[in-house]
Design brief:
Blueprint (H helix, E strand, L loop, with lengths): L1 E3 L5 H11 L5 H7 L7 E6 L1 H7 L7 E7 L2 E8 L2 E8 L4 E6 L2 E6 L2 E6 L3 H18 L3 H4 L2
Antiparallel strand pairs: 1-5, 2-3, 2-8, 3-4, 4-5, 6-7, 7-8
């Protein structure tokens, strides 16, 4: 779901926490080696997100925050902050090109530029977390 998270609204915060879980504690963040991606440059996006991004003339960037049951993909448009809340069971990550990751959920997608080693490491961390949460390994598909 795509939400405007610019303002502190308890109802929206509760909705996010229900979908992807509460933010990791400080100790968990340290153990995991960080839970945020830093700035990612957006190459392309679905129509709903694109319509928000074209409202200003800045470089389109986003960031990803890991949560226990999913991720938050956040971006800014004009003076508002939006977040695409993606539970792990709906998250699809593709690496079609060597320097680009495609992140999908239902009819939303964002393609981000991956031109640094830290981005590849972070995406691997997200995929590993998704695998840990879902509990499905390749062995379960063939048994």
């Amino acid at each position: 779901m795509l939400l405007n998270v610019s303002y502190n609204r308890p109802k929206i915060k509760a909705q996010i926490d229900e979908s992807v879980g509460k933010a990791f504690s400080l100790m968990d963040r340290i153990k995991m080696g960080g839970i945020g991606s830093g700035k990612l440059v957006i190459n392309s996006s679905s129509v709903q997100i694109h319509n928000l991004l074209i409202l200003d003339s800045y470089v389109n960037t986003c960031s990803i925050e890991m949560r226990p049951k999913g991720i938050l993909l956040s971006f800014r448009s004009i003076l508002e902050t939006y977040a695409l809340i993606i539970p792990y069971h709906k998250l699809k990550i593709y690496k079609g090109e060597s320097q680009q990751y495609s992140i999908y959920m239902d009819n939303y997608f964002v393609k981000v530029k991956a031109d640094q080693k830290r981005i590849h490491q972070f995406m691997k961390k997200v995929m590993d977390q998704k695998l840990d949460v879902s509990g499905q390994g390749i062995d379960e598909y063939y048994s």
